[in-house]
Please model this.
Amino acid sequence: MNNRYGTLASWVYNLDKPVGRSFGDVEYYQQRLGESEGPILEPAVGNGRILVPLLESGFSIEGFDASDEMLGYCQEECSKRNLSANVTRQTFEEFSYGKGFAAIIIPAGSFQLVTDTTSATAVLRRFYDHLVPGAKLIIDLDPIGSFLGPTGSVRRWTTEDGDLLTLTDHRVETDYVAQTTLAHLRYEHWRDGNLVKSELDLFKLRWWGVEEFLMALQRTGFVDVVVSGNYQHGRAPHKDDEIISFEARRPR
Model:
């Protein structure tokens, strides 16, 4: 199953990107959301790496994710901090709320999990429909270069109990027409040299050109699109940037 974020994948994600770790994005979103009045939505909220600090900063933010395992980590982190976690299990394609939001944020390239162009266009429209007039949408995308780099890496983490988790990442397909890559992600849990459990996830992503995504936002109806590189708002992306952020607004 593609992009599943099962038990081991979610465990590794939470060890590698725990709440409290920022890549410059936590501070960026705190700054860019400072003038938003009203509830904020984070689709693909994951383990709450972004949501929890925003809650602690006083923002009214809720989220959803397709992975029960990831939502469990998010709820656990909120519980540790006596925060109310309004997070639900929903998908990009089918999420629904009976209210409008002052902002929707999709950090860390999560939108690129939607690999079908028609579906991605429909998701953008769904974002638009869930924003109140004048509200903003902020989406981070990984640049094309991050999709086409070296493959076959092996990474490892040590758990609190001293067990070993490993991740082998092997790209098996690159479709230059569909602008997608497919990787086999093999997660393994080891204890005292013995394999306890393994998981194989088929991880598919889509890359977007900067102008391509800007035009997709405009076709959806968004205005005042600002494209920024490496969380420096208003600074046009450079070829070596690690992240590209798009901020757009629903017209009033």
